[in-house]
Amino acid sequence: MTFKSATQPFCRTCGKPIRKYTRRVWIEKEEKHRAPASSFSRYVVGVARTREDCARLSSMQVVSVTRAHDKEFILSFNEWDGESYADEFFCTSSCAAVMGYAACEKYNLSMPAWRNRK
Ligand SMILES: [Zn+2]
């Protein structure tokens, strides 16, 4: 579940900032037959040695890069639209579970379908 916000949301359980929802962009030196672009991955044709090179290959913010072993070329980078986060409330499913247990213990919460079952 992605969440769009002008400000960074924080995990309701542990307080950590919730990660940006980014898309991995693979940089290919030449056109290849690849899987079509998706919400989490796409590829571009080009060569990148710097973050600025990556920025020229994207219309979004470049938030991280992955370099080749020789450290000269960038293999891929993550682009971000400036407003999408991985979740609205929790940084991980573990933190969501902790909050779920706490809610059940403190308020005896349950889903309506379970509560109404005889
Ligand atoms: Zn958390």
Can you offer a commentary on this structure?
The chain is built from three helices and six strands, in the order βββαβββαα. β4 (61-67) and β5 form a beta hairpin. With 118 residues, it is an alpha+beta fold. Helices cover 21% and strands 25% of the residues. Bound molecules: zinc ion. Zinc ion (ZN) binds next to loops.
Structural class: alpha+beta
Could you tell me which ligands this complex binds, including any ions or cofactors? zinc ion
Beta-strand share of residues: 15-25%
Low-confidence stretches: none
Overall, the morphology is: elongated
Count of strand segments:
6
- The N- to C-terminal Cα distance equals 32 Å
Highlighted features:
118 residues; alpha+beta; 4-stranded mixed β-sheet; two-stranded antiparallel sheet; elongated; binds zinc ion
In a nutshell, what does this entry contain?
With 118 residues, the chain is an alpha+beta fold.
Write the layout of secondary structure elements.
Layout: E1 3-4, E2 23-28, E3 41-45, H1 51-56, E4 61-67, E5 74-80, E6 84-85, H2 93-107, H3 112-115
Parallel strand pairs: 2-3
Antiparallel strand pairs: 1-6, 2-5, 4-5
This protein binds zinc ion (ZN).
Zinc ion binds next to loops.
